[in-house]
Amino acid sequence: MLRAQPLLLTLAWRNLWRHRGRTAAILFALALGIWSMVALAALSRGSLEGQLQKAIGNLTGHIQIHARGYRDDPAIDHRMPAPDAALATALTDPSVRVWAGRVRVPAVIASERESAGVTLVGIEPQREQGLSFIGTAVTDGRYLESPGDTGLLLGRKLAERLETALGRRVVVMSQDVKNQVGDRGFRVVGIFDAEPEAIETAFVFVGRATAQEMLGMGDTLSEISLRSDDRNRLEVPLSTLRTVAPSLDIEPWTVVEPLLTLTEKIVNVILVIWYAIVFAAMSFGLVNTLLMAVFERTREFGLFQALGMPPRHILGQVLVESLILLAIALVIGNLGALATVHALRDGLDLSAFAEGMEYFGVSPIIYPALSVGDVTMANTLVAVLGLVASLYPAWRAARHVPIEAITRV
Amino acid sequence: MGVWKTSIVATALLLIAKSAGAAEASAAQIIKSAIDYWRDVSSYSVVDMTIHRPDWERTMTIRVWTRGSKESLVRVTAPPKDAGNATLLLDNDMWSFTPKINRVIKIPSSMMNQSWMGSDFSNNDLAKADDLIEQYDHKLLRTESHEGRKVYVIESVPKEAAPVVWGKEVVKVREDWIMLEHEFYDQENRLLKKLVTSDIKPMGGKLIAARERMQRVDKPGEWTDVVTHEIKFGVTIGPNTFTLSNLRNPRE
User: Can you give the residue ranges of every domain in chain A?
Assistant: First the structure.
């Protein structure tokens, strides 16, 4: 068969040009299938990546350190001491890019007219830069200047709901360490915008020292959040931290936000299902086209065989034809998908029809992200399974008895 | 009804200690005197609280014990439906007892802005009584006259860190320390709600305003009236009155 390859290639190639319309149609169908697989994968990955980054930016970070019990009941009782020498040293390790301690407790915020339940977050303003969204989220007024800042950052949506505004005073009430009402007036010094909008109503930010004073916490904290270089390689920093602070609850984002890991799994499953559907449709089209071509050429194959061509070459001929079709379609489909991803590099804005998406933390603007794994999988799947599907028409072609095939009318 | 007045008094007290100017000192002094006058060393009173709404109205009879500016106990005695409901205030903390569920509940911070027993008073109006002395800067705006007596009009602005949502409060105090009006403004100087007293007559050995009405400006058809029927000042109050166990199991 090796020697016969140029001949088979020629025959297969010429056969494709015999019915240009038909070839073009099946090429289009195959290319569309490939395109949809790769483009959809890129969009899903992009959406997932956006969701992950947003969630990590929305105060999650890569690793969180709490007192035991805080994650079940984020109350002031579950607070932890400020990092001791050993923990502080571990936090300066190069694997930790940024870290910050926070006060994070449930509270009530009240204006003259309305009140709302929120999470009060006491932050170290400088340290939150690059760690969480709040460092860059203030769009009106100013950001907090120091941990002792007496101002408050309010989400735009919450400001509307409380009927208050930049420069006004609000009152924050919570429970202090002695289980009594800890409250204080704060002036709204900054309004922040965030995505999803629920963040704007869920959190208010004040200086960490101010919050500690208001709640009588001394220098204790509710949580420490940190970012490493790679969110998927946290084993080393995790084990270091757990060694120096065995009494604390130290968990990666995958544990703190299990929904995110679940979302990633769901996306993978959806992609596989999509691949299966698209591939099933594609392969039926491909097999059908090849079968048609084979039936048309019954007499021709009979003649080949009568002239001495072994059946495996006829099999090879059809397979090569299928391979050429698949190769061209893969090239067109992948190029099309690349072009689509490139065209959407500034984001695909679905906000017009996606109001509900925000509730699930899905950003309405999707930045497609091509992953090598997804592209390889789609291409391999189509090429290998496409060839396997073509075996049937090829086998039909090679099975003819020459005399019957030639004499067939 | 010392409970409500206490807030005003308390705020005034603090200011006196650290007032900067003479005018401020005197304004704060007036507020403090008014609250002290109303609150006395201790008091026991019986009042009717009427909650009025456009389509309904109901009246509760309430007994109130106070001692100093930090301790108050309020107990509903009628109608039978509400009888036994009680509220204990110790400084800024507040507990309520409901006989129907036989439970003492500490009012959490999240509920401090909510209405007290469905009235136009909020839990904060009761519990933050002391704040008017401690948390505000006072200024004498002008003087008026009322039934031939001088009335001080005092503007009280909450300090920056004060846990007070109002932009300012304006209090009118007559020269015999009877408080006539207490207005609450938002931070754009719009009047939001107003406490007005009337029916000044001698009771319990001194002149007091027997009727006070709390009303929100944006809801003209809704108000809460508190009418004092009986009041005694300087009474001796048992040592266990202001305790959680007495809140649950009344012994007087």
Answer: 5-55+260-407, 68-247
